[in-house]
Design brief:
Distance between the termini of chain A: 53 Å
InterPro entries (chain A): CDC50/LEM3_fam
Largest interface: A-B, 111 and 110 residues
Family (chain A): Belongs to the CDC50/LEM3 family.
Strand content of chain B: 15-25%
Structural class of chain B: alpha+beta
Helix content of chain A: 25-40%
Structural class of chain A: alpha+beta
Protein name (chain A): ALA-interacting subunit
Number of helices of chain A: 10
Number of domains of chain A: 2
Strand order of the largest sheet of chain B: 14-33-32-31-15-27-30-29-28
Oligomer: heterodimer
Number of strands of chain B: 33
Strand order of the largest sheet of chain A: 1-9-3-7-6
Helix content of chain B: 40-55%
Radius of gyration of chain B: 38 Å
GO cellular component, one term (chain A): endoplasmic reticulum
Subcellular location (chain A): Membrane
Number of strands of chain A: 9
């Protein structure tokens, strides 16, 4: 008896596929309710986001072309590569609306492929963090070592091409101080860039790419570098340059003194200076609000459509006449 | 021992007629002359040790059906794995990931591949192990083997060697192909049941050579030596050529001395034999073909999708590498920050074509996410779990034999949901090969009140139908109900007492001697005597029950004898010349033992279809008692013997309709002189030598068996397996076609057709057969001998029959007309030839049921192939014996009946069930579920990988086609393996559109599978389109939201990691919400797994962010510090998730609202509990939910109801004028 039943499957609701289950049905009620709910939820969110975005004041000024002296206008590249030409360029920006501190100063580059695979890979996280790992440069090709074999700190293309335009802002003859501290992510400063790692052999030979670094300041305090090293996702990107901690009144004009050092002329990239405030949503971002309103609108539209369809062509739920054998009766 | 011994002393050859008689003069038997190849086998009998060395070393009796062994497992299993294109691709990609070309780190390519392959191989190993254990079960069976000293000892089968002398006892299987030396019968014959080999149920006689007859005791084998030279192993079951060299003489051997492995010794207490072919050399194993690896339709279609995706993959890779080459050539030189070119030429503007080529490889690896690496392994895992559910289904567990259902290969589960045609064996599958005496008609009176299973099933169905039938009919029933109620067979009360095997007769008029009070007691007595005397069985006293049991050649005969015993005519003894029957005295009601001298026995052959005995009773009266097929007997009645013909014919028709096997019984009284003169002729014929002996015997018998007087008819129920008619009915309603392929006789097959309701009265039977009469005429006309009629003529004739039949079906107007095709094996050989087979198939497809009888195992396989390839639809073959192995392997799905002794069918099968009736649940419930699960699962898999993979491509376009991915390597690694795979596995394992009860109540739902509603290209491309849409939404919404603005109040802008992480989070949400929308059945497991997938992502993100920055790179503390505090991150998730799922949501709401599928409506009915509120509607719908069917008892009931309605109409049309006339 026991032997015979030894193969008998044991009963459990699981093994018999009889577990209690929630079997929801997308009834018209549910469908309409969910469309309407989404609609009514999304549109206010969209409006909120739009208003937040609306509160952001953003000023941007493209200066790459304007800052090339007239006699170099057709050969911008030779201008930027000529170390003897003065690169300072003065721009004046009108403030349309009051900028409330903190005001963020960004530089924007376009057509710059910081997301290119060759570029992205060319760095060494270990070296940035650990002074003992300065030889860890195998990923940094082609900027890993000097010609005599000494490791470059920080190594790699990203660091080497560090952005080096500088801005000085003043309004009503008074300089606006730009705070360059705290522009990088906190965790980057704390953990990713060592406080005891100092630049070495950086921009010392051959072609000089971008900015040089002060060898006395540890990497964790070189916030421009830290910001730059967070590669952007798209070829058009903005990076934080600094913060202004005083308000700027509306209709003021800001005088900007730009050291136009960075070569974007070779690849035809644009450079912009951007001043922007933020709200809870971040910078100026109308799209979120619009998209929310759009999706919400579509949902409302569909919800209403479903209601109408239901009014004109209702189907009783569980109506057996909709079963296939009733719809196409067997002859 | 004693009774067996006495029984064994009877020389059966003098009892039996045609089959067993050997002319007394030995025919000039010359040893076979053979030389050359094909006849090299040399067996030294009783000297197995000689077969251990090389020239005579033959294979062991060990059999193995496993795919791999310990050594071959690794290479072979790996090879199997890499036969899948996708795996080869991933292997290739894994290799390339070690080079700088790779866009990812090597571990993220190799780890998932190793995981996936390892899991699949582990599954193979487990399945192989099960197969091995099953082999061992057979290999470890014990048999008595001579050990050289004149004694026999038990040894496992696998240790038997060629040359061993073996003693096989009653009801044991032969462990190898044996040469029969002697048996417990003096004349060395034995009975063998070959059901396992060819499906034939009647026993076959084998006989030993006369010269070895003396070897009838264990001790005689001590010095036995002999040599067999014979043919080499071959798969032909019916031939054998060889010589035995024994005592310096050579004797020829033929198939009648050979006992084949896996056939069974019956009615013989033991035999001795020498092993000639062992293990894989044996004929049955030679017949076994390597089990083909089967793949389901869905999987084949899935391959096509993979090819589509590969094309897409190559296409976008080409686009991106072209883009890359152009960018590199034209723009790279100006990108001073890139410092191009590099040494490796990967970014070389001067050699952009080469760089482009390298990049093509990178792209091919990168976009590999379009092809879900975990698809195969997930499907495999799901199928194993599904198989586990099949194995554990208590509703498919057979209490009697203790066998659960078993999915032997799990890769065909979903194919179960797509079956179109079922090809079934008969004996052992539909029937239990047990006959029960159920009814009889004696002297024109019907006896026996119990109904056959078919009648009961139909009655139940009718009762149910009437409840649910539409009003019109209910009304008409009021007037005419009685007529229908009459139709509903009387369902007998629980029978009293213990059931007797072979006897289910119930009628007090005949039992306990009451028959003597009936109208014609003499006729009744005669009837019972025919039952008790006209047979070839041998009684065996059973001490336990204190009664006799009978060893008969066929189960019908056994049933007759049991019936005779129960009626009070107990056959108790048989000697060489007499039969003793203890019978009730007509007048005194006392039991007396009467002796009947058995003068002659005219045996049953399938050609004669009758059997007679000539006996002389105690008064000296000579009687001929005859039983046979009704048509044959009715032809041979004398003029005054037709008294009961009309009544009996009517009863025979009723019995036939009830699915019973019928025989008519008759007798005649012989004058002594008449008998003597006939007997002389008969003896002459019996002892004649030569080929026409049988013809002569037949002719002489024919002379005797005429001018008979009809006594009555018997109806025996060929016991169907439990629940077979109901199961066939349901399967037919589910739209399945059922073909019966049997090795049995045509009559038997037709009877079973009736009892399974595959045939019914009123169905037009198309019998395609070789018309012997036509051939005879033909041969006479052309003065050609009958034997030389060319194949061509026969074929032409068959062709004509086929064409006519097809024509007839085409011209049929009545939609209810049903045709049945019945064809026998010989005809089938022609019909299956290349030029006729399509015609045959056309005809068969046009018929509601198809029965092929007397077909060989090979023909079964051929028919299966014809159906499979001819119709292109899924076929399922079900059988229990070795003769079904061919078709089981050939069909898309092979199902074996387990729990019976022979294991071949099960070993060759994909699924094993204990009873035919479980097929319903296997197909309609598990098949339906598995089909939908797998179909939805695969669609979803492609969807999610497209949705994810294409975002990589779009991002490419923004990185100058450089092959950079926006996601971290780890995200991508986890995507397929952890973050999205579990809910889809839950979908594949647990999804139920409707519950199992509803599947069974609404068999029409099954048609969703064969029609492939859930995996057609429309649906597949729909899902792919959905994937494309989602990828666009996910990518562009995120990009636009995050591209240049500060994403949080701290002013920082989003870098690649932030964008990638946000995008990836959206993907995770989107695909997991999508699957939640796809599912309709949520147990805690689904809830848990979907939730788990999303939470697991956050947990991973937090943990990954906590890793030191060397490992996590830019993802260091990304969630905690950057994303979680940023409202825009959460806003984008909500937006993208809703936007992505919106079209699908709209689609399913629209579909359910305005174009619901059957399961939608049923779900709703269940949801609103309408089935409980409105029982009437529910039963009505479930009775309507069947495919139009012409077979099954429901169809029979329908036909009957239609018939009655017509009658009713006729009646009313006759009535109405009469009503109308007075008015006018």
């Amino acid at each position: 008896m026991d032997h015979k039943n030894s193969k008998k499957p044991t009963y459990s609701r699981f093994s018999q596929q009889e577990l209690p289950a929630w079997k929801p049905i997308l009834t018209p009620g549910w469908a309409i309710a969910s469309f309407i709910t989404i609609g009514t939820l999304f549109i206010p969110i969209g409006l909120l986001a739009l208003s937040a975005s609306d509160n952001v004041v953003e000023i941007s000024d493209r200066y790459d072309e304007v800052c090339v002296p007239d006699d170099y206008s057709s050969k911008a590249e030779s201008y930027i590569q000529n170390p003897d030409v003065k690169k300072t360029c003065i721009r004046t920006i009108k403030v349309p609306k009051k900028l409330v501190a903190p005001i963020f100063v960004y530089y924007q580059l376009e057509n710059f492929y910081q997301n290119h695979r060759r570029y992205v890979k060319s760095r060494s996280n270990k070296q940035l963090r650990d002074p003992k790992a300065e030889d860890d440069t195998h990923d940094c090709f082609p900027k890993s070592k000097t010609k005599d074999g000494k490791p470059i700190v920080p190594c790699g293309l990203i660091a080497w091409s560090l952005f080096n335009d500088t801005y000085k802002l003043s309004t009503r003859g008074k300089e606006i101080s730009i705070n360059k501290k705290g522009i990088a992510w906190k965790s980057d400063r704390k953990a990713k860039f060592g406080s005891n790692v100092y630049p070495k052999n950086f921009q010392k030979e051959g072609l000089i790419g971008g900015a040089t670094l002060d060898e006395q300041i540890p990497l964790s305090e070189q916030e421009d570098l830290i910001v730059w090293m967070r590669t952007a996702a798209l070829p058009k990107f903005r990076k934080l340059y600094g913060k202004i901690e005083t308000d700027i009144e509306a209709h003021d004009s800001i005088k900007v003194e730009i050291e136009n050092n960075y070569n974007t002329y070779k690849f035809g990239g644009r450079k912009k200076l951007v001043l922007s405030t933020t709200t809870w949503i971040g910078g100026k971002n109308d799209f979120v609000g619009m998209a929310y309103i759009g999706v919400g609108g579509i949902c409302l539209f569909m919800g209403i459509n479903f209601i109408l369809l239901y009014v004109f062509r209702p189907r009783r739920l569980g109506d057996p006449s909709y079963l296939s054998w009733n719809r196409h009766p067997i002859a | 021992m004693a009774p067996g011994r006495i029984r064994a002393k009877i020389k059966r050859s003098s009892l039996y007629t045609f089959g067993c008689i050997r002319p007394h003069v030995d025919s000039p038997d010359e040893p076979h002359q053979f030389r050359g190849p094909g006849f090299s086998r040399h067996v030294c009998c009783n000297q197995p040790q000689l077969h251990q060395k090389k020239p005579l070393k033959y294979c062991k009796n060990y059999i193995s059906t496993t795919k791999y062994n310990v050594v071959t497992f690794l290479p072979k299993a790996l090879f199997e794995q890499f036969r899948r294109v996708a795996n080869v691709y991933f292997l290739f990609a894994a290799f390339l990931s070690l080079t700088p070309v790779s866009p990812f780190s090597a571990y993220s390519m190799i780890a998932p591949l190793a995981f996936v392959i390892g899991l699949s191989m582990a599954k193979e190993a487990v399945e192989n192990w099960h197969r091995f254990m099953q082999d061992m079960k057979v290999n470890m069976r014990k048999v008595r083997v001579h050990n050289g000293e004149g004694t026999f000892s038990l040894k496992p089968w696998m240790n038997i060697r060629v040359g061993d002398v073996i003693k096989v006892e009653k009801d044991q299987f032969f462990p190898a192909d044996l040469l029969l030396l002697s048996s417990s019968y003096e004349d060395g014959i034995c009975y063998v049941e070959t059901m396992n080999l060819d499906g034939e149920t009647n026993l076959k006689v084998k006989r030993s050579l006369e010269t070895t007859l003396s070897l009838d005791d264990d001790s005689t084998f001590k010095d036995f030596r002999g040599t067999v030279k014979c043919e080499d192993p071959n798969p032909n079951l019916y031939t054998f050529v060889g010589n035995l060299e024994y005592k310096r003489q050579v004797y020829p051997l033929d198939p009648s001395q050979i006992l084949l492995r896996d056939s069974k010794l019956r009615n013989t207490s033991h035999v001795y034999g020498v092993v000639i072919f062992s293990g894989h050399d044996s004929k049955v194993m030679q017949n076994a073909t390597k089990s083909p690896s089967k793949r389901s339709t869905i999987e084949k279609q899935m391959d096509k999708i993979i090819y589509v995706l590969f094309t897409l993959l190559v296409l976008i890779s080409l686009i991106s590498s072209t883009g890359f080459a152009i960018k590199t050539k034209t723009q790279m030189p100006s990108w001073w920050y890139m410092q191009a070119p590099d040494d490796e030429g990967l970014y070389d503007p001067k050699n952009a074509a080469l760089s482009g080529f390298y990049h093509l490889i990178t792209a091919l690896i990168l976009y590999g996410y379009l092809i879900p690496i975990s698809l195969y392994v997930s499907i495999e895992l799901v199928k194993v779990l599904q198989a586990l559910f099949i194995n554990n289904d208590l509703n498919m567990y057979d209490e009697e034999t203790g066998t659960p259902a078993q999915a032997r290969t799990s890769n065909l589960n979903e194919e179960l949901g797509m079956v179109d045609t079922i090809l079934s064996d008969k004996t052992g599958t539909l029937t239990c090969n047990q006959m029960d005496f159920l009814k009889c008609s004696i002297a024109g009176m019907p006896y026996g009140v119990r109904s056959s299973e078919v009648e009961m099933a139909a009655a139940n169905q009718m009762a149910m139908d009437l409840e649910g039938h539409d009003d019109h009919f209910t009304r008409s029933r009021g007037q005419n109900g009685s007529e229908i109620e009459l139709e509903a067979a009387r369902v007998s009360k629980e029978s009293l007492g213990i059931p007797i095997k072979g006897f289910s007769f119930e009628d007090n008029r005949l039992m306990n001697g009451n028959w003597a009070r009936e109208a014609n007691p003499e006729v009744l007595q005669l009837f019972f005597r025919v039952l008790a005397l006209c047979h070839t069985a041998i009684p065996e006293f059973n001490e336990e029950t204190d009664g006799y049991s009978y060893e008969a050649e066929s189960p019908d005969e056994g049933a007759f004898l049991v019936a005779a015993r129960e009626f009070g005519f107990e056959f108790c003894r048989r000697t060489q010349s007499s039969i003793f029957v203890r019978e009730r005295n007509l007048s005194s009601q006392e039991f007396v033992e009467r002796e009947f001298k058995l003068l002659n026995l005219l045996d049953f052959t399938s050609k004669r279809k009758r059997m007679s005995v000539i006996i002389q009773d105690e008064t000296g009266q000579i009687l001929l008692l005859c039983k046979g097929a009704d048509s044959i007997i009715f032809d041979r009645l004398s003029k005054n013997g037709r008294m009961f013909e009309e009544a009996t014919t009517k009863h025979l028709n009723d019995y036939g309709e009830a699915g019973l096997r019928t025989l008519a019984l008759a007798y005649k009284v012989l004058e002594e002189s008449e008998y003597i003169s006939w007997n002389e002729e008969f003896i002459k014929a019996k002892t004649s030598i030569g080929g026409d002996r049988e013809a002569m015997l037949e002719q002489v018998s024919d002379m005797m068996e005429k001018d008979l007087i009809l006594v009555g008819a018997t109806a025996v129920e060929d016991k169907l397996q439990q629940g077979v008619p109901q199961c066939i009915d349901k399967l037919a309603q589910a739209g399945l076609k059922i073909w019966v392929l049997t090795g049995d006789k045509m009559e038997t097959a037709i009877n079973i057709g009736f009892s399974c309701s595959l045939l019914r009265q009123g169905m037009k039977q198309i019998c395609i057969s070789m018309n012997v009469d036509m051939l005879n005429q033909n041969s006479k006309k052309h003065a050609v001998n009958y034997y030389f009629v060319t194949d061509q003529v026969v074929k032409e004739n068959i062709k004509m029959q086929l064409t006519n039949a097809i024509q007839m079906i085409k011209l049929e107007k009545d939609p209810h007309a049903a045709y049945a095709l019945i064809i026998d094996g010989k005809t089938l050989t022609y019909a299956l030839e290349e030029d006729l087979k399509h015609q045959f198939l056309d005809l068969a497809v046009g018929c509601a049921s198809v029965i092929c009888c007397r077909v060989s195992p090979k023909q079964k396989a051929m028919v299966t192939r014809l159906v499979k390839e001819g119709t292109g639809k899924t076929t399922l073959a079900i059988g229990d014996g070795a003769n079904d192995v061919g078709m089981i392997q050939e069909a898309d799905i092979g199902v074996g009946i387990s729990g019976v002794e022979g294991m071949q069918a099960v070993m060759a099968s994909d699924f094993a069930i204990a009873q035919f009736r479980f097929l319903e649940r296997l197909l309609v419930v598990h098949g339906h579920w598995c089909y939908k699960r797998i179909a939805q699962m695969i669609c979803y898999f492609f969807y999610k990988n497209i949705a994810f993979g294409l975002t990589l491509f779009y991002f490419e376009a923004f990185t100058g086609f450089s092959g950079q991915s926006v996601y971290d390597d780890w995200y991508m690694l986890l995507f397929n393996v952890v973050l999205t795979s579990l809910p889809v596995i839950a979908l594949g394992v647990f999804e139920q559109d409707v519950s199992s009860e509803i599947c069974l109540q609404f068999p029409a739902l099954y048609q969703q599978g064969p029609r492939n509603l859930f995996f057609d290209w429309y649906r597949i491309f729909g899902w792919m389109g959905n994937g494309l849409y989602c990828s666009l939404i996910v990518f562009f919404l995120n990009i636009i939201i995050f591209y240049d603005q500060a994403f949080r109040a701290g002013g920082q802008t989003a870098d690649m990691t932030v964008v990638g992480t946000a995008m990836f989070t959206c993907v995770i949400y989107v695909v997991n919400c999508q699957i939640a929308l796809t599912m309709s059945h949520f147990t805690w497991i689904q809830h848990f797994l979907i939730g788990f997938s999303i939470i697991a992502w956050y947990v991973f993100l937090i943990l990954y962010g906590m890793m030191p920055p060397e490992l996590s790179g830019n993802a260091y503390k990304i969630f905690v510090e950057a994303l979680a505090p940023a409202p825009i991150f959460w806003l984008s998730i909500l937006l993208v998730t809703v936007a992505c799922n919106l079209p699908y949501l709209a689609h399913i709401s629209f579909q359910r609202s305005f174009n619901p599928m059957d399961h939608h409506v049923i779900q709703e009915i269940k949801y609103y509990k309408k089935d409980i509120e409105d029982r009437h509607m529910w039963t009505r719908e479930s009775s309507k939910a069947r495919q139009e069917t012409k077979i099954g008892f429901s169809a029979r009931v329908d036909a009957k109801i239609r018939h009655l309605k017509q009658m009713l109409q006729k009646k009313s049309s006759v009535l109405s004028p009469r009503v109308a006339t007075p008015r006018t």
